[in-house]
Amino acid sequence: MSFLSDRVKSVKPSITLAITAKAKAMKAEGIDLIGFGAGEPDFDTPDNIKKTAIDSINAGFTKYTAVGGTDELKNAVIHRIREDCGIEYKQENILISCGGKHSIYNLFQAVINPGDEVIIPAPYWVSYPDMVLLAGGKPVIVGCPESQGFKMTAGQLESAITDKTRLVVVNSPSNPTGAAYSEDELRAIAEIAVKNKILILSDEIYNRMTYGGFKATSIASLGEEIKALTMLTNGVSKTYSMPGWRIGYMAGDAEIIKAMHKIQGQSTSNPTSISQAASVEALQGDQKAVTDMAVEFEKRREYIVERLNNIEGVRCLDPQGAFYVFPNISAYFGKSYSGGKIEDSADLTTYLLEEAKVAVVPGGAFGADEHIRLSYATSMDNIKKGLDRIEEALKAL
Ligand code: PLP
């Protein structure tokens, strides 16, 4: 007999977190493993941010705050969105939560009724479909292969809309592909959303990590009508290398924000007071660390894309943002080794982990089984060593 709810039975655990845990366990056993699984920057949190946190503890800022975040942090978020996206919000449009993941969870809980459809372009971040399921909704996956740059066209969106569609997810730059939408592409999607009156979740968590002169556009900046339908999410985890601090935020329609606030008030209450104080410094203080990180990521991206494309049977698009590459490795499907046959991305991942001692994430987890995801949030030395191992292991197949 099981006491578990149907709701929880419908959900898969996060594969990316599982792979990170497996890689950590192998390392703890003393295995010389190179990890390309990380979903977090490998840099330390900048000193000015850490100092603000320590000062806030010493000043006794250790009690409950307002459920939806402090006024100071909401103002810092408003400032940051104005600077980066050119959009104006008021405090009533902002909710601070325990990471962007929590922001998205709250949103889905607030706007999805049982059976409502949520359009999710694939490849997608692993958590979207399961968070939709947890809210009683139905994920509608729209395949966006590499031939279209891993991006959803306006035509695809229009064809996927039904009278049950509530929301569409736009994640630019994307996890897992690093692909980012141009302003024109977003405009075309915005037009369809406005025409059909559907909400947009605009997940902009990688918006400051862009390369080759590309600048991310927020779909909410493309006019008042689309702004009214867009729920914009971001956070400090990636941009300021603060994933453990757990601060994310959502900006959008005041009524929806109020509903999300109500859910948060009956679940987590406020995000950690100390992390909130530190995030004010992150969002408003010196931004040099952000640019420095992007410069380093850009060098790694160039190296990794070139190396991968030089391996026979591997094809890798040049991503505009984030810190992931998403090469196509399907040429290796059907090959055998002493441990078995490689039929899909999960098998290839197992092969690389066991034979080459390299951890990558199978594309199947992101709805694109012909691929694997490599994160380059690891040192250049590791990247070089890891790619040597991958190259050798693939050649041996
Ligand atoms: N959105 C995307 C696309 C992500 O990749 C992540 C983290 O991996 C998040 C949101 C949530 O990040 P956090 O909860 O740390 O703010």
Overall description:
- By secondary structure, this protein is of the alpha/beta class.
- It is built from 14 helices and 14 strands.
- The strands form four sheets. It has a seven-stranded mixed sheet, sandwiched between helices. Strands 9-14-13 form a three-stranded antiparallel sheet. Strands 1-12 form a two-stranded parallel sheet.
- The chain is globular, with a radius of gyration of 21 Å.
- The termini are far apart.
- 48% of the residues are buried.
- The mean pLDDT is 96.
Query: Secondary-structure element order, as H and E?
Result: HHEHHEHEHEHEHEHEEHHHEEEHEEEH
- How many distinct helices? 14
Taking all Cα atoms into account, the compactness measure Rg is 21 Å
The low-pLDDT segments are none
What are the distinct ligands in this entry? pyridoxal-5'-phosphate
First and last CA, distance: 45 Å
Proportion in β-strands: 5-15%
Anisotropy-based shape: globular
Overall mean pLDDT stands at: 96
Number of extended strands: 14
Helix content: 40-55%
Structure class: alpha/beta
User: What order do the strands of the largest sheet run in, or round the barrel if closed?
Assistant: 2-8-7-6-5-3-4
Biggest sheet details:
7 strands, mixed
